[in-house]
Write a structure and sequence with these properties.
The protein has 123 residues and is mainly beta. Strands 2, 4, 5, 6, 9, 10 and 11 form a seven-stranded mixed beta sheet that branches. A four-stranded antiparallel beta sheet has the order 1-3-8-7, with no helix packed on it. Strand 4 and strand 5 form a beta hairpin. The radius of gyration is 13 Å and the shape is globular. It starts with a strand and ends with a strand. 35% of the residues are buried.
Length: 123
């Protein structure tokens, strides 16, 4: 059974930083892409970032490019999202996801979703 468990969310002030972690189990994740989506209150889910096998291919949404960094540790079956210069518009539930490749995740072709972790940015 595949399971994705996020951690690291919380409340931070505008301009601050947070680092999200996701620990995966139930498959050989080094063979798959991993990434992050988010959903803000009253809005649809949106793509944030994805990393393919060996992080050879990485995608970011335009809204986070230059501020967020996705990385993975395949030995530990983990994916991370370092979020810097956070803005109030980044307030959302952040979901860890896995899929066939980084482009598939960007296209919302996601195999599995985590339960999500809340990130709140105060002004």
């Amino acid at each position: 059974q595949v399971e994705l468990v996020e951690s690291g969310g919380g409340l931070v002030q505008n301009g601050g930083s947070l680092r999200l972690s996701c620990t995966a189990s139930g498959r050989d994740f080094w063979q798959y892409a991993m990434g992050w989506w988010r959903q803000a209150p009253g809005k649809e889910r949106e793509f944030v970032a994805s990393a393919g096998r060996n992080s050879a291919i990485i995608y970011y949404s335009d809204s986070v490019k230059g501020r967020f960094t996705v990385s993975r540790d395949d030995c530990q079956n983990q994916v991370f999202l370092q979020m810097d210069n956070l803005k109030t518009d980044d307030t959302a539930v952040y979901y860890c996801v896995t899929g066939l490749d980084a482009l598939a995740i960007r296209r919302s072709e996601v195999d599995f979703w985590g339960q999500g972790t809340q990130v709140t940015i105060s002004s």
